[in-house]
TrEMBL record:
Belongs to the methyltransferase superfamily. L-isoaspartyl/D-aspartyl protein methyltransferase family. This is Protein-L-isoaspartate O-methyltransferase domain-containing protein 1. Pfam families: PCMT. One of its GO terms (molecular function) is protein-L-isoaspartate (D-aspartate) O-methyltransferase activity. It is found in: Cytoplasm; Membrane. GO terms for cellular component: cytoplasm; membrane. Substrate recognition component of an ECS (Elongin BC-CUL5-SOCS-box protein) E3 ubiquitin ligase complex which mediates the ubiquitination and subsequent proteasomal degradation of target proteins. Specifically binds to the methyltransferase cofactor S-adenosylmethionine (AdoMet) via the N-terminal AdoMet binding motif, but does not display methyltransferase activity. May provide an alternate maintenance pathway for modified proteins by acting as a damage-specific E3 ubiquitin ligase adaptor protein. It comes from Poecilia mexicana.
Amino acid sequence: MGGAVSAGEDNDDLIDNLKEAQYIRTEKVEQAFRAIDRGDYYLDGYRDSAYKDLAWKHGNIHLSAPCIYSEVMEALKLQPGLSFLNLGSGTGYLSTMVGLIIGPYGVNHGVELHKDVVEYARQKLDEFIKNSDSFDKFEFCEPAFVVGNCLEISTDSHQYDRIYCGAGVQKDHENYMKVLLKIGGILVMPIEDQLTQITRTGQSTWDSRNILAVSFAPLVQQSRAEGEKPDTVQLPPVTVRSLQDLSRIYIRRTLRNLTNQDSQGKGTVQRVPHKRKRRRCRRRRINTYVFVGNQLIPQMVESEEEEHAEEEQKEAAAEEEEERDIGDIEIIKQVNELREQILALPLPESLKAYLLYYREK
């Protein structure tokens, strides 16, 4: 499923195309998508297809099409502090984006059937925390993944504000999913080839709406011998953060706010090198004539010929205009300012490492 938007050259191109096609509609969802490079979740040798609007599967590792993830993120209506459960959490790509929005006081849990995929998701999460500069621009709710069948979750498990299921749900499992949701919560899952948003409005009342026609592989039901008990899945516990952890969150938030205020006070703007857009084939209309009966009728016909000269002229003019508009804007090298602030603190190295989440970069 996918192919609804044009292929991009990189992650930013992909997000631009998703915005243009109205799959991404809110700023917070856009920021989360831009912060995490989809290509980082592909195996080596397959990254060339990362920015196409297509699903990807290799063995047990699977990613849905970007347009699907966009609709899911928008439909979940995420807010800071919410609890989230990802059923069929896969590579952790979606859970990590969710973590950037719900923040450090949220809950972020995932259940995945395949042990090798959970290990892959944990590896990718560790790489994001330790190596990505995007991590320092957000307050993050780290996902916790467990191995198990999401149809065998313990009946005494806690409920969640937001739930997503990344596999096709049969009608007879719909109520099972709904029970995991808090009143006022939102569940997004594919039912009968429709991505569906379900809002729990009361103890036994629900509002449903179809979002998008989709095609998902169905949930796996494990076969068992007669009388054999299923392996009940225990979801991760919901725990109160330690004082140490709360201190790290507060210190990083304070430094981030000071850095942002300092940047605004200086009036400097960080500018990245201008990226040349791909030239698009321009259609132009030309006059031709056709015979209708005995009459010669003028008709406009579209031509696919590229207007090279005109296009290059416009690009050159746009670049000149941009240079004129720069004025006294300072062009500075992009740096991780939060990291620089922490490293400059008069603290023991071990405490600096803790504040940096033991980041390697």
